[in-house]
TrEMBL record:
It holds the Pfam family PGPGW. The keyword Transmembrane helix applies. It comes from Lentzea jiangxiensis. Keywords: Membrane, Transmembrane, Transmembrane helix. InterPro entries: Uncharacterised_PGPGW_TM (IPR019099). The chain crosses the membrane at residues 21-39, 45-62, 83-107, 113-134. This is Putative transmembrane protein (PGPGW). The keyword Methyltransferase does not apply.
Length: 150
């Protein structure tokens, strides 16, 4: 007869494995979507950064890429809200993605019609607007700190 391992040990090992796989999948998805958004409209560098930070928690060798990407992502975030015109275009793009997503979900004759495509467009618009708001608050807070020092 074989001796059985204690159920608690198996549960802990399985939980760690599931958690690790989840972190790797999430980090990989964020990284790939971020890379795609580098050439498509959207906050590509911020998602690349989020993916790298997530993956670096499991793969420490990736940490050396985090700081350079963070610096570039923060510069891009600042640039995206540097003028009212850029903010207006970014808001229009986010709202446009949401509107197109609704159309894709409702209208049946468009290519790849359906809520799966529509939902991804809507989520892209919401992510864009959320990151735009985050960038605006971050830059405004940084400028406020710089003014209080100077």
């Amino acid at each position: 007869m074989r001796a059985r391992a204690a159920p608690e040990i198996l549960d802990t090992t399985e939980e760690v494995t599931v958690k690790r796989v989840g972190v790797v999948v999430l980090g990989t998805v964020l990284l790939l979507v971020g890379i795609a958004l580098l050439v498509l409209p959207g906050p590509g560098l911020l998602l690349v950064l989020a993916g790298l930070v997530t993956l670096a928690s499991e793969f420490p060798k990736l940490e050396r890429y985090v700081d350079p990407v963070r610096d570039r992502a923060m510069k891009a975030a600042e640039d995206s809200v540097s003028t009212p015109l850029r903010i207006a275009f970014s808001v229009a793009a986010g709202l446009g993605l949401i509107a197109v997503g609704v159309v894709w979900g409702v209208v049946e004759w468009v290519p790849l019609a359906g809520w799966s495509t529509g939902t991804s467009l809507i989520l892209s618009g919401l992510v864009l607007l959320g990151l735009l708001g985050w960038s605006y608050r971050k830059v405004r807070a940084r400028r406020g700190t710089a003014r209080s020092r100077g």
